[in-house]
Design brief:
Distance between the termini of chain B: 64 Å
Largest sheet of chain B: 2 strands, antiparallel
Number of helices of chain B: 12
CATH superfamily of the largest domain in chain B: MetI-like
Oligomer: heterodimer
Largest interface: A-B, 97 and 100 residues
Largest sheet of chain A: none
Helix content of chain B: over 70%
Strand content of chain A: under 5%
Radius of gyration of chain B: 26 Å
Helix content of chain A: over 70%
Structural class of chain A: mainly alpha
Shape of chain B: globular
CATH architecture of the largest domain in chain B: Orthogonal Bundle
Order of helices and strands of chain B: HEEHHHHHHHHHHH
Number of helices of chain A: 15
Order of helices and strands of chain A: HHHHHHHHHHHHHHH
Number of domains of chain B: 2
CATH topology of the largest domain in chain B: MetI-like fold
């Protein structure tokens, strides 16, 4: 009896939590199809096909260069992710497998860099970028994101956990470090590299601060700032249009997320993040 | 004349450790160079820049003039700064608690026996807000938390509660930031917990069940100690992250009313790119860096008392 009660309580909490998380998304999707502000705010929310319209989506692209924002976001996040994986994986290999002087000091520096987030250094970063004439270009958003102390730490932990026998065998066959790294370590590290990739991509995809500081041309903005512009400076006052813009930003993420869900969940779940 | 026969190079195993260390040194330089270059240019140089700028009166129009400790003097006399740090710390602490405690609760509940697809569905729905941009999330919640028309107050009304001025009152504005940020981030903590829970050997739990330990005892005697490194990781990461919040207050409340929901990053941003007082903003940046270093150091020190490593 008490077991049954515990099960009922468990599922009640889980279902309530899932509902609390999905309801805002469902509400904004419905809002995106509302013909008027009154319809958007109709309480309780109801579905009358007569009151719904797809016109809001067209208005979004009329008001702001929406696809440009989207493209910029893709370019920035993808480039940072690829570069970050390369710099983190190579450095992590050195920390996990090579013997060299000053290793412990360098690794302490890597860990220390976790405490200096970009929010702290944003002012000099802006000055450096503007002296290099890179402000107002996507480079200003890409370059500061490439180094990641967290990424190096994450991958190093994984490389340390890999069994050494294969590398030993490769070494005897005369393979150098580069070959060992590319042919043995990398193929064995799919999940942890995927985890880093996902965390890196989502962080920079979501970032609002850096584009707000670095970019002044509307055409070069990323999606997070684009949405704020759509809801603020470029708003015509139609709430349905804002809702449509938000929905358009979420749907592609949702599609990719569902398609890659097993991989995303598995890779983070199997990476065993701990200190 | 003697001819020396070429000696074949020794294989790794036969080399002396010192020679190996030297040879690895070059390889290490090669492997580390991309990280070192990006670190020097985009972390170390700007960090030095923050220190340098904090001694200057610097606006965007002219290069600065040296003002000694004036900016730090200003820090001490800035009445708003302490208030902003107070609201930042308040919001950060609650967000941290929600992530660490509520995240653990949901992760443990997800361990219950259930069909695979259902578990998959729960995991997926918990994690999804984490991949949606904070500005989209905050914009959605700006609708939902609207005092007169929002869905949240409507639902509260259904269960007989009064309307709450979520975004306009100084008591509730920080709560709104807490709710929205936690809502977005808790899924990631849940997933990290799930990984930690899966790594606990089943043998331990089975042995405890055989010994007749109930679920409560099993949690505190086995799950919690085995999970402590994961909990520690989440405490450290969530502390650092929750002190860097910017998008939620920016979009939801603009930090208001007053400074009730203003975070330190927002305050820094406004000093730097609103007032163009780059020197003072840099001094604020230094305080944030010190706060993070001190907090992390304390956490590492305290962790020795409660984390358990096999």
């Amino acid at each position: 009896m008490s077991r049954l009660l515990a099960r009922v309580a468990t599922f009640t909490i889980l279902v309530l939590a899932a509902l609390a998380i999905s309801a805002p998304f469902l509400w904004i999707f419905r809002g995106a199809f509302s013909a008027s502000d009154a319809e958007l705010y109709r309480l309780p929310p109801t579905f009358h096909p007569g009151n719904l319209t797809g016109a809001n989506f067209g208005k979004v692209t009329d008001q702001v260069p929406y696809f440009r924002f989207f493209l910029n976001s893709i370019i920035v996040s993808t480039t940072i992710t690829v570069c970050q994986i390369v710099t983190c994986a190579t450095a992590a290999y050195a920390f996990a497998r090579l013997h060299f002087r000053g290793k412990n000091v360098l690794f302490a520096v890597v860990i220390g860099s976790l405490m200096i987030p970009i929010q702290v250094t944003i002012v000099p970063l802006f000055l450096v970028m503007s002296k290099m004439h890179l402000t107002n270009t996507l480079w200003a958003l890409i370059l500061p994101g490439i180094f990641s102390g967290f990424g190096i730490f994450l991958l190093r932990q994984h490389f340390l956990a890999l069994p050494g026998e294969l590398e030993e065998a490769a070494r005897i066959d005369g393979a150098g470090h580069l070959r060992t790294f590319v042919r043995i370590i990398l193929p064995l590290s799919g999940p942890s590299i995927a985890t880093l990739g996902i965390l890196c991509f989502t962080y920079w995809w979501n970032d609002l601060l850096l584009p707000l500081v670095m970019i002044s041309d509307t055409d070069r903005q990323t999606l997070p700032v684009g949405l704020v512009l759509l809801a603020g400076r470029f708003s015509t006052g139609s709430l349905g249009t804002i809702a449509a813009g938000i929905a358009m930003a979420i749907v592609p993420v949702l599609v990719v997320f569902i398609a890659a869900q097993r991989y995303i969940v598995q890779s983070i779940a199997s990476s065993g993040l701990k200190l | 004349m003697t001819t020396t026969k070429a000696v074949p190079p020794a294989l790794g195993r036969g080399e002396s450790p010192r020679r190996r260390k030297k040879k690895d040194g070059l390889a290490a330089l090669g492997f580390l160079s991309p990280a070192i270059v990006t670190f020097l240019v985009f972390v170390l140089a700007p960090t030095a820049g923050v220190l340098y700028l904090s001694f200057y009166d610097w606006n965007l129009l002219s290069d600065g003039t040296y003002v000694g400790f004036d900016n730090f003097d200003k820090l001490v006399h800035d009445d708003r700064l302490l208030g902003v740090y107070g609201s930042t710390a308040y919001m950060a602490l609650v967000i941290l608690m929600v992530n660490v405690v509520f995240g653990l609760l949901l992760a443990v509940l997800l361990e219950t026996r259930m069909p695979r697809w259902l578990r998959g569905f729960f995991r997926l729905s918990f994690l999804f807000p984490f991949v949606v941009s904070a500005s989209a999330v905050a914009l959605i919640w700006r609708f939902l938390l609207n005092k007169d028309l929002g869905l949240v107050n409507y639902v509260l009304g259904l269960i007989g509660l009064d309307r709450i001025d979520w975004l306009g009152s100084s008591a509730w504005a920080p709560v709104s930031v807490i709710v929205v940020n936690s809502w977005k981030t808790v899924g990631f903590s849940i997933l990290v917990y799930i990984a930690g829970l899966q790594a606990i050997p089943a043998v331990l739990k089975e042995a405890a069940i055989v010994d007749g330990a109930n679920a409560w005892t099993r949690f505190w005697r086995i799950t919690f100690p085995m999970l402590s490194p994961t909990i520690f990781f989440l405490v450290v990461i969530n502390t650092i992250n929750s002190f860097q919040i910017f998008a939620e207050p920016r979009v939801l409340t603009q930090g208001g009313p007053g400074d009730a929901s203003r975070t330190i990053v927002e305050y820094l941003y406004d000093r730097a790119f609103g007032d163009f007082d780059l020197g003072y903003a840099s001094a604020i940046g230094i305080t944030l860096m010190l706060v993070l270093i001190v907090l992390t150091a304390i956490q590492f020190r305290l962790s020795r008392r409660w984390t358990f490593y096999e």
